[in-house]
Every structure is written in C-alpha cells, then in structure tokens.
Design brief:
The chain has about 325 residues and is α/β, with parallel strands linked by helices. It has a single domain, classed as TIM Barrel, CATH 3.20.20.150. The chain has 11 helices and 11 strands. Strands 2-1-11-8-7-5-3 form a 7-stranded parallel β-sheet. Strands 4-6 form a two-stranded antiparallel ribbon. It has a two-stranded antiparallel sheet with strand order 9-10. The radius of gyration is 19 Å and the shape is globular. The relative contact order is 0.13. Bound molecules: zinc ion (ZN) (2 copies). Its cofactor is Zn(2+). Belongs to the AP endonuclease 2 family. InterPro entries: AP_endonuc_2, AP_endonuc_F2_Zn_BS, Xyl_isomerase-like_sf, Xyl_isomerase-like_TIM-brl.
C-alpha cells in the first residue's frame, strides 16, 4: 500500500486575485508550523511526510512546509503509466527554487519510485521497461537537484529464485548508474509479502554486494514493513535491536532514510498495511525510541500513514516532535 497523495491548501479567491490578504485560522496555523520547523532543526531529526505533486511538482515543497515537516517524499510522475511526459524544465526549476526558498536540503528529500517498476521481474519485457524507468527516474532526480531516490527492489513472481531476482535488481541498478550521474539508489525493505525481495536484511545486502558503485546505493527502512517482515520494533528495545541487526548484516552507513508507519497487521504477518502513528500494532513507544535515536540523526524520517481526519500528517508530525526529548 502506498502513501496518500496530498495537495497544497487551496488559496482563497482574494489571495489568488492578489487582493488584500486576510488572515484565517489556517494561515496562522501554517505560520506556527513554519516556526516550529525552524525550532526543530536543533534536534537533528528531520520528520516529514509523503506529499502530493498535483498541480505541479514544485507544490510538494509548500505542502510540506504547511504541515510543519522538515523532510518530504514525493512521486516523480504519474503512477499509472509507463510512458510519461518528460519532466518540464520550468517546473523543475520552480521546484529547485522553492526548495532553496523554503530551506530544504536535498539530503532530506526522498523521491519514491513508481509502483509499476519491477527490476527483478522474470518477464523480460517488464524487466526492460523497469530498467528504462529507473534510468528515467534518476534523470528526473538530477533535474530536480536531488541526490536520493527510493524504490521497492522487486519481485520474483515466484518463477525465479530469490538469488536470480537479486542479481536482476543489482543489474538494473548498475545499468542505471552507468546512464545517470550521482544519484544514490535507496532500496526499501519490504514486508515479505508474496514473492517480493527485500523483506530480510540479508536480501538487501545481497543486492548491495552486487552493485559496482557502492557509494551510490543505500537503504530506507520502513517500520511497518520491518514489523510485518518479523523485526519486532514494538518490543522494548526493539528499535535499537533492529538497528544493531541492520548494522551487523548490512552496515549502518548504508541507512539513508526511515519510513515512519505504524502497522495494521501483526508481527510477522507479511502484510503491507500502514496505520497512523500509535494506532497500530507497533505503538507509540517504538516511535518515541526512533525520534530519540542518535543513529537516525540528519536523515529523512517520512510518514506514509493514512492520515485520518483530525490526525493528519501535520498532527502526526507534531506528535512525533513532541516525543523528542531534546525539544
Ligand atoms: Zn515504498
Ligand atoms: Zn515505505
């Protein structure tokens, strides 16, 4: 299941027409969130959310600021089509300008890859299309001034072995690295649903081992996926234990980001069902440990939760920052 798309707040007709700006509750709230974002920089935790790109990719930046986020994720185009129009140069320039105006460091922006891709597919046509899309997405990142790119490794569809699937994924990454400059490909851990690869840290390590330029590969740990795959982050000391295990099996220097999601499913259920923070089987204390974990300083910590009315991203970001002991 994926992050929910979100757009920027609609401007009032007066604002849109350039008329006298009248302040409403929403604006004051947004301003307070902006202040809080500046204040939160002191604790080195960059908490944010997946934001929508409807109406123009640059709008994602303002949406994040409005919800008081310090980091964000976004898609780089439509999730429905393999053939997408090229990224508009003017839109990309506006995006870069907004990031700089609103003081977002590219290190805290983590684009999410298209769900259509399967770089481990045993079907040759799907593999070819996925490989081409990976190149296209990395090129989009470069154009946007971004240097991280997160995607789901892939699936064997049950018709090739995990090792063969791992080799295909690494092959697609090596190919994309050759075609594009500098962007770091960030593998997301999976819930272990069906025949997806990347539920176990050892599988992520297997891919990394086959990547030629290891300065351009990393991992994003999704808390819901980890829990569903059997890593018990909900247990006392569970977050630290998971990071220790990750460090031993993969290496902490590969950890580039965290997806902050509670889980609708139980430990080891292998279901990819995100829940709002503190409302699922993981529970609030694991998230308190995460926002106070020094090993997670200075990397994007990104919500992909349902964000139900009254407990949307802004409220969940506020809650998470309130748990930071350095505040
Ligand atoms: Zn994902
Ligand atoms: Zn995720």
């Amino acid at each position: 299941m994926g992050p929910k798309k979100r757009g920027a707040r609609k401007r009032t007709s007066e604002e849109a027409l350039g008329g006298e700006k009248h302040r409403d509750g929403n604006e004051e709230e947004a301003e307070e969130r902006g202040d809080r974002r500046r204040k939160n920089r002191g604790n080195n935790k960059y908490i944010g959310a997946h934001v929508g790109i409807q109406g123009g990719i640059w709008k994602a930046v303002g949406s994040c600021t409005e919800m008081g986020g310090s980091s964000f994720a976004l898609f780089l185009g439509s999730q429905r089509s393999w053939k997408r129009p090229a990224l508009d140069q003017t839109a990309a320039a506006k995006f870069r300008e907004q990031c700089s105006l609103q003081e977002y460091n590219p290190a805290h922006i983590l684009p999410h890859g298209s769900y259509l891709m399967n770089c481990g597919s045993p079907k040759e046509d799907v593999f070819e299309k996925s490989q081409a899309m990976l190149v296209d997405e990395l090129s989009r990142c470069s154009l946007l001034g971004l240097n991280l790119y997160n995607f789901h490794p892939g699936s064997s569809l049950g018709s090739i072995t995990t090792e063969q699937c791992v080799a295909k994924i690494a092959g697609a990454i090596n190919h994309a690295h050759q075609q594009t400059p500098a962007v770091v490909t960030v593998l997301e851990n999976m819930s272990g649903q069906g025949s997806t690869v990347g539920g176990k840290f050892s599988e992520l390590k297997g891919i990394i081992d086959k990547v030629r330029d290891q300065t351009r590969v990393g991992v994003c740990l999704d808390t819901c996926h980890a829990y569903a795959a059997g890593y018990d982050v909900a247990a006392e000391g569970g977050v630290k234990a998971m990071l220790d295990e990750f460090d031993q099996e993969v290496g902490l220097h590969y950890l580039k980001a965290i997806h902050l999601n509670d889980s609708k499913g139980k430990l080891g259920c292998h279901l990819d069902r995100h829940e709002d923070i503190g409302k699922g089987h993981i529970g609030i204390s694991a998230f308190r440990d995460i926002v106070n974990e020094p090993r997670l300083d200075n990397i994007p910590l990104i919500l992909e939760t349902p964000g139900r009315p009254g407990f949307e991203y802004a409220e969940q970001i506020e809650l998470l920052y309130s748990l930071c002991e350095k505040n």
